[in-house]
């Protein structure tokens, strides 16, 4: 793999090239225009050529900057999309449904294909057990039980 300049320089270049303004790039990245200018200068040293025409105003890209901009922008977009996908995967916890073994096998499980068609992106975990699980302790998200009376206290009085 080729050696790359620091990411901070690439982000500064991408923002400045997109806005064609060091001031707007600085506002977006939460730094000063001088910091953007410094990062661009370091990237220009790394590349061995100017990436912006600074005078006369307005700011514009040189031929080298115009060639570099789409590659840097695309690369940063790929990074952002990959990180967002990884974060989303980590956030997607399965819906955990606990019910009795009999109800799970006779009623719930036969209906799961239809539910999956309606909700293909929602991971589901069916916990078939005749034991009562503690939802507050995180043993499940939804409990389906049959009882002749309902109580909200533990243990029921």
Structure description:
This protein starts with 6 loop residues before the first helix and ends in a 13-residue tail after the last strand. The protein is rod-shaped and about 85 Å long. 13% of the residues are buried. It has 157 residues and is mainly alpha-helical. The protein has helices at 7-19, 22-29, 33-47, 63-91, 101-118, and strands at residues 52-53, 60-61, 95-99, 124-128, 142-144. Strand 1 (52-53) and strand 2 form a beta hairpin. The longest helix has 29 residues, at 63-91. It has a 3-stranded parallel β-sheet, covered by helices on one side.
Low-confidence stretches: none
Name the helix and strand elements from N-terminus to C-terminus, one letter apiece. HHHEEHEHEE
Overall mean confidence score, pLDDT: 87
Strand order of the largest sheet: 4-3-5
Number of strands: 5
Helix segment tally: 5
